[in-house]
Automatic annotation (TrEMBL):
Organism: Schizaphis graminum (Green bug aphid)
Keyword Membrane annotated: yes
Transmembrane segments: 198-216
Source organism phylogeny: Eukaryota, Metazoa, Ecdysozoa, Arthropoda, Hexapoda
Protein's UniProt name: Uncharacterized protein
Presence of keyword Membrane: yes
Keywords: Membrane, Transmembrane, Transmembrane helix
Amino acid sequence: MKNFNDELKDLVLNGISIEMCDQNNKYLYYKYEKITINAFCCDSPAKSFLLKTEEHTGFYSYSKCTVQGKFLQRHVCFPNLNCSKRTHTDFFNTINEKHHISVNELINIPGIHIIQNLPLDDMHLVCLGVVRQILLLWKGSGNIGRVNVNSQKLPINIIKIISWRFFLLKKDTPSEYSQKLRPLDDLSRWKATEFRQFLLYTGIIVFHLVIPKTFYNNFLYLHVAMIILLSPNHL
């Protein structure tokens, strides 16, 4: 990390000079470019490593506010929504000592805002997290597939209808998608790109008039929220 921090600090302070050449590879001039950091895209373990903070399973690991986690149903959860936000100044001064595990050199790089420049990771939190869990609940898998444990499990005939709709959509799926949606029987092998495609595009179609209205509205809230948050026009 020291080499990375030193090089990044040098780039931010001094920029980079690019040798410009013509079509014959003849030198013309040097072009100076200023380097700024827009964001670090990391999953939760990588973010804790980068920031030298408690790992994502810790009670004080959440990076956006000072909420203290609780251990519920074998998982660390953050149920309290009324907590103060973390700030760059508080992070710099290590106000919440339980959040930090060692000194973070990243804060010494000019122009970096620890809170704003490290966004939440939608691939793991939403696609492989929330969306996957919703589908597992509705399909039923392992212990959560038992009726007395999971009251949201959909009937097998509904699961078959949804999988059949996936099949019908295959031929109309644009080539820009890296993978076609597979049946729910293959849910354990779905990739993040499949969950993302399902959440943003095909889910509202295959679920329409098939699942209970309360289930559909719940999914629709997530769909609309992520459309807004992932939009380049969202501030």
